[in-house]
Structures are given as C-alpha cells and as structure tokens.
Design goal:
- The chain has 244 residues and is mostly beta strands.
- The protein has two domains: 9-106, Immunoglobulin-like (Sandwich), CATH 2.60.40.420; 134-243, no CATH class.
- Helix content is 0%, strand content 45%.
- It has no helices and 19 strands.
- The strands form four sheets. The protein has a six-stranded mixed β-sheet, with no helix packed on it. Strands 11-19-18-13-14 form a five-stranded mixed β-sheet, with no helix packed on it.
- The protein starts with 8 loop residues before the first strand and ends with a strand.
C-alpha cells in the first residue's frame, strides 16, 4: 500500500492580500526547502479568490509547472505541490499579478549513521540571501509509518559543542517519517512554534543566535517512538554554517 503523504510546509494567502497596499500576498513570500517538500497554500483572504501559478506574470511558461486554478476563500481553498527537483521557482496570482513569491529548493543532503538531513539552502545558510531555511531530519535505520507518534530531541550549539555553547534544545513531537524544522533569522528572542498541520508538518525556530556568521552543530536524537524510548540510542550530529 502506498504510504500517505502529508504536506510539509504551509504558506498563507493573508487577509487583505488582494489589496495593492498589502505588505504581503503569500506569507512567507520566500521559502527555502529540501527536495521532496510538499507545500500547501491556503487562501485565508476572506471573500477573495486567488491562484498559485508557477512562473512570472505574462511569462510564456507561466503555469506550466503548477497552477492551482481559482482558489475560493472557503473550503477547499487549498492547493498542494511537491517540489521534486532543485531550483528557484517564482509563482504569482493570476488575479492579482502584481504579487510574486518564490520557493527555493535544494538537493543538498548530509548522511549520518541514523539520520539523513536535507538542507533547504545547503550546509551554508547565507543570511543576506535567505531569511529562512528548512531542515528535514529523516531516520534511516528504523521503519516509521505516517501515523506513529515520534518525538525528536533537537539540540543546537553555536561555535563549539560544550555546554556553554548550547543555544537551543527542545523535544518536537510529530507523526510521519521525518521532522521538518525551519530556522528563521531576525528574532531578538528565542521562539519556536508549530507544527503547520495537525500533528505533522514543519516546526519553526527563530532566535538571536541566527543573526550573524557562525558555525553550528545540530544533534538529532530519537527520544520516543509511540511513547516509548528506543532500546538503543538513535542520534546523529550535523553541521550548519551561517554567513552574512
């Protein structure tokens, strides 16, 4: 039986998006995700139809890659697309063509003994170019399905791995075969929230530790499977560098 595929990441068409003076149309307006990420767009603009259409407005190939058609502001005002190849893909709303957003897709992977990590921007995150980067932790040594609850302990160290260099640690609970965790620059205090969907999808983490150039060590550990700790430790260590 084919496994159930849940969305990875949620993008909102915000209230007031149809107005030219609106600060945003799609939010976030630019995201960076690993290959294989399934993005879901939701029309949250009351009373206004919108589209999610690949390419730039009036481009000859507009809509060739994906096109939602008209999305009503009432159910089922959602469209999903899986990005299966690297590149940067602009998209727009046919009804309101002055708004353009983008999805950057990376095929960069790091393999550990127990996990595979997909990087939204590769192992070097350029903070000047990308406001966000999605990391995707995928266990490789244990079988998981789409419905079993799993808890991951994610710890982040900045410029060294002793206890004084620890900047973040939290257990993230989810279902499915992976943990998507988006890192966001620009926050003055630590904030984490999610997941994007009921029990699954991306979590989000921002903090002042992501605001300058640094070398990070990220440890991923399987804390529990279906409410029980694994018999043996399942853990890996990955590197991420930020540059400005």
């Amino acid at each position: 039986m084919k496994p159930v595929e849940f969305p990875t990441y949620a993008v909102s068409i915000i209230p007031g998006a149809s107005q030219r003076e609106s600060a945003f149309h799609y939010y976030p307006p630019a995201i960076a995700v690993p290959v294989g990420s399934k993005v879901a767009w939701f029309n949250n603009d009351p009373g206004q139809p919108h589209t999610v259409t690949s390419g730039l407005p009036s481009a000859p190939d507009a809509g060739n890659m994906f096109n939602s058609g008209v999305m009503p502001s009432t159910a089922p005002g959602v469209y999903m697309y899986t990005f299966d190849r690297p590149g940067t893909f602009a998209y727009h709303c046919i009804i309101h063509p002055w708004r353009v957003a983008a999805v950057s897709v990376s095929g960069a992977l790091a393999g550990g003994n127990n996990f595979e990590l997909g990087y939204g921007t590769g192992p070097v995150w350029n903070l000047t170019k990308d406001f966000r980067t999605l990391l995707d932790f995928k266990p490789t040594t244990i079988p998981l399905d789409s419905f079993t609850p799993v808890a991951y302990n994610i710890t982040i160290y900045k410029d060294g791995t002793n206890v004084d260099n620890k900047v973040f640690s939290r257990i993230f609970a989810t279902t499915g075969t992976e943990l998507p965790l988006e890192l966001i620059k620009g926050y003055n205090e630590t904030i984490s929230y999610g997941p994007d969907f009921s029990g699954t999808g991306a979590y989000h983490l921002g903090g002042p530790f992501f605001n300058d150039s640094a070398d990070y060590t990220i440890t991923a550990e399987m804390a529990a499977i279906n409410g029980k700790p694994p018999d043996n430790q399942i853990m890996d260590e990955f590197s991420l560098q930020t540059v400005t």
